[in-house]
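User: Some background: our group keeps a shared notebook of sequences we're curious about, and every so often someone picks one and asks for a predicted structure to add to the entry. Today it's my turn. The entry only has the sequence so far, pasted here. Could you supply the structure so I can complete it?
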Amino acid sequence: MQETIFSRIIRGELPAHKVYEDEHVLAFLDIGPLSKGHTLVIPKEAKAYVHELSDESMAAVGRVLPRLCRAVREVTGVEQYNILQNNGPMAHQAVFHVHFHIIPKPNEEEGLGIGWSPKAFDHEEGAKLAEAIRRALEGGEQA
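Assistant: Of course. Here's the predicted structure to add to the notebook entry:
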């Protein structure tokens, strides 16, 4: 994987306003926040996409994410928030090291704005797709 700004933050080569750190996870304030308290949560394992992460790294992020959300809510006083994670440039990923955004949503103007364009769901195609995904999980699970 290519070197990223997050790799340099993990190694302490670049400053960050850290809010949490353990053996597997680092969380710090985003320097381009969408709202007060916007926090980034990253695994220390250097992978660009979630599907590349080890189960251990993803589990470590999952264990700390709720605790971080509670802390951000408490400190900002903002009850509503988004958790955002992007994979790939077309999905708006800018730093190619897995990261999760905790973005407080205090009002309509601040925080994350999302456009959502749902499509019609074809139940027959859905059944085929669900079966194909189940088969992929059975044959392709990696440790």
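Suggested note for the entry: The domain at 5-113 is CATH 3.30.428.10 (HIT family, subunit A). The longest strand covers residues 25-29.
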